[in-house]
Amino acid sequence: MIIIGHKFSEIKNIYTIDSISDVKNTPNNSIVHLKYDENMIEYLQQNNINFAISATNKQEAILSNLAGAKFIIINILPLAKEIQTIANEYLFDSRILLKISHIKEINTLYPIDGAILSSSIK
The domain spanning residue 12 has which CATH number? Predict the structure, then answer.
């Protein structure tokens, strides 16, 4: 199970961007985080930048995987479970993460790939 933001996790933070110019303000080799935006995704692909997408529906999740997102972040548990089922069936390369506010919430994660602590999204 992946848990981004925990002290034992290799990945401590991801960095939210709202525009292409925001990428310049992120640490080198970091993972950037954004809402689904095809223009920004295209820029990230062209520049080999690792990214995570906050998806709000199945279509965004499927297209985020197709685009090469490292992680697909979902805010709602039922939607995360539904997208995880799709990810398993179609062998997504992207990992599905549920956004949680406290580590105690990991008990609810099965069968989702992992979680991201909301405090780790900068």
Answer: 3.20.20.70
